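Allow me, if you will, to draw on your knowledge of protein folds for a short while. I have a record of one protein: its chain in single-letter code and its fold written as discrete structure tokens. Could you please explain, in whatever detail you think fit, how the structure tokens follow from the sequence? The record follows directly beneath this note:
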Amino acid sequence: MSYQKKELNVIWQDKVTRSCFHIGTLSYDQETYVFNYHRDASSFKEALEHGYKPHPLFPDINKMYTSRELFIAFDRRIPSKNRQDYSMILNDFGLNENAEKMDILKATRGKIANDTYSLEEPIIQNENHEIQTTFYIQGMRHQNHLDQFEKKINYDTTLVLKKEPENPHDPWAIGIYTKHDTKLGYVPRYYSKFISLLMDVDTKIDLRIVYINEKSTPHWWVKVHLCAPLPKANQTVLEKLLI
């Protein structure tokens, strides 16, 4: 059985505006780790306009960086095996101590406190020609009525997407609600444009809760899985927007 290359989007957040930008990709094919900037993508150009500076360990935006070992810039984002709660951390994310580093980065999003980078799952096409990804609902802590959100939702809760074109922070913003119109939060900004365009072609989007952790911090409260058929008539346009 061949090894399927693993990829993660490298996201940078502007601390002032809180806007998020897809600036590059980290991949691994079981032999080599590769990092490269998406220097020609609109998201990268917008990041530069917001003051983004290339990472000190990856100063050349035109270079494809390769390594047999995970780059220290990303390796430092993995919990240390010397931590007493290392096994517990992995277990919380459904992983064991044999998990590959890319899987740990995928589960933890490579987040470090007060840091501007994260690693997120790309939107991909599966073998059934469906678009899919998973992400954590953003902005839940700003929904005041969700102080005890675990009593309001469960794994069977029906989710509804609503576009917010008048949103002052993101014209592509998409709110996530329950069928009873309780607002939970938002689709992460680095997915919002694509999903908004997907909603415009009236394709059926299946969004369901796959992980709830009310004991964690807000960014890890609720994880959802999104899946939708790729409309054939719009396939060329949508494929160009795959994050």
